[in-house]
């Protein structure tokens, strides 16, 4: 049921996080505010294709 997905930073750096997602309950792409170590601040991370 749950799949491992990658979250990529939208600020232009190559920062990424790995997380799990239930595709049946959440078919849409995930967007989260996470800490970007390259920018040293919280930025929006979007689910990679």
Summary, kept brief:
This protein is mainly β and 49 residues long.
Would you kindly provide a written description of the structure presented here, covering whatever features stand out?
The chain has 49 residues and is mainly beta. Helices cover 0% and strands 57% of the residues. It has no helices and 4 strands. The chain has strands at 2-9, 16-22, 31-36, 41-47. It has a 4-stranded antiparallel beta sheet, with no helix packed on it. It is elongated and about 35 Å long.
Topology:
Elements: E1 2-9, E2 16-22, E3 31-36, E4 41-47
Antiparallel strand pairs: 1-2, 1-4, 3-4
Walk across the major sheet and give the strand order.
2-1-4-3
Decide which structural class fits the backbone: mainly beta
What sequence of helices (H) and strands (E) makes up the elements? Answer: EEEE
Q: Major sheet, described briefly?
A: 4 strands, antiparallel
How large, in whole angstroms, is the Cα Rg?
A: 11 Å
Percentage beta strand = over 45%
Helix content: under 10%
Question: What's the β-strand tally?
Answer: 4
Low-confidence residue ranges: none
Distance between the termini: 18 Å
How many helices does DSSP assign? 0
Q: Identify the overall geometry.
A: elongated
Mean pLDDT across the residues is 93
């Amino acid at each position: 049921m749950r799949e491992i997905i990658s979250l990529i930073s939208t600020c232009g750096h190559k920062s990424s996080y790995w997380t799990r997602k239930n595709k049946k309950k959440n078919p849409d792409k995930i967007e989260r505010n996470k800490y970007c170590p390259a920018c040293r601040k919280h930025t929006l991370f979007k689910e990679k294709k």
